[in-house]
Amino acid sequence: xxxxxxxxxxxxxxxxxxxxxxxxxSIISSGDTLLRTDTGYSLGRxxxxxxxxxxxxxxxxEPGNYFLGAFVDHDNLITETTGGNNVAYYPVTVLxxxxxxxxxxxxVDDILVAPNETFKLIAIVRNDGIGPADTTTLRYYRSSxxxxxxFDTQVTFDIISGLDSGEQSAENxxxxxxxxEGTWYYGACVDSVPRETSTTNNCSSGTQxxxxxxxxxxxxxxxxxxxxxxxxxxxxxxxxxxxxxxxxDWGETTAYGNTVEYTGPIFAGNISVTLSGLVCNTEYHLxxxxxxxxxxxxxxxxxxxxxxxxxxxxxxxxxxxxGGEPPAFPASRxxxxxxxxxxxxxxxxVCPPExxxxxxxxxxxxxxxxxxxxxCQ
Length: 377
Hints:
Layout: E1 2-5, E2 13-14, E3 18-23, E4 33-38, E5 43-44, E6 49-52, E7 64-72, E8 87-94, E9 101-108, E10 112-113, E11 118-127, E12 136-143, E13 153-160, E14 168-176, E15 182-190, E16 207-211, E17 217-224, E18 231-238, E19 244-250, E20 258-262, E21 269-275, E22 282-286, E23 289-293, E24 298-300, E25 303-305, E26 310-317, E27 336-338, E28 359-364
Parallel strand pairs: 10-16, 17-25
Antiparallel strand pairs: 1-6, 2-5, 3-4, 3-7, 7-8, 9-11, 11-14, 12-13, 12-15, 15-16, 17-18, 18-21, 19-20, 19-23, 22-26, 23-24, 26-28, 27-28
């Protein structure tokens, strides 16, 4: 405050104290809010004095219109001809103390999601200012880089209630990943409120999220509908929502060299494909199914449960064992199945024409020590 005062009395020197007040009206008195007191002035007669004093308005003062006043001899210690001219004032407007909203943290509950999968965004909003912040909006953004700003793509929002100085609020909201694979960054920005000390710190940094289809899962199952030259290959397949084309590899060695495509609908469950053109008395290797993403056109080898290398063997047999059945195998090995011709008597099977009197057996997954049949007769 700038103040000019003087001694207009009859005494040559006076030493008054000066009180500085904040009032809700223009009538300044000692009953108003005392801001400070100055002492030590020595006023000569009829000589103006100009001073500048700093005063501090209390932090808890309600915003509004007030009067700042200077009261000479405010404690009424000097005998004067009149004290009605001891006060000067001017109007002031008190604003709320400034706030400073920040977003010190923003993240996600999962950094690896599938296309169109719903996941959760998380953020903390804090008021680092000395005054309260009004209700505002927290906006979540998706960006191609880690620098988050209001120029990025807004995906959702939250309403933030007013925050006192030093108070913070934890927020979260659901959003859906893009429908295409890629790498994105998610963060949040809080809208500024009046009288913020800074609006350059209202956004968080970005958290990286990878959007990708998960690898398919496959389990090999025993072959069924076995015939002299064909068999159905079976598997349990789960594409986890991804667009896949499914193939079964097969061949006479572990290099396979042949594929057969499953052309039915892709879904989570059992799938089957018929393998035809097989040759009797030949062992075939089957690694299990694999999925290929249609969109990317590159192999995506699934997780295959059970033995990755199943073996399929077509055998011509001409000498029956006692009882007409092949030897039993341990439960851990795939059983030996006999195939009967539709018109053959019980306990018999039909070989190809060159060994028509023999029995035909199909061995699945015999890992070691399997029974070696005699040659066709």
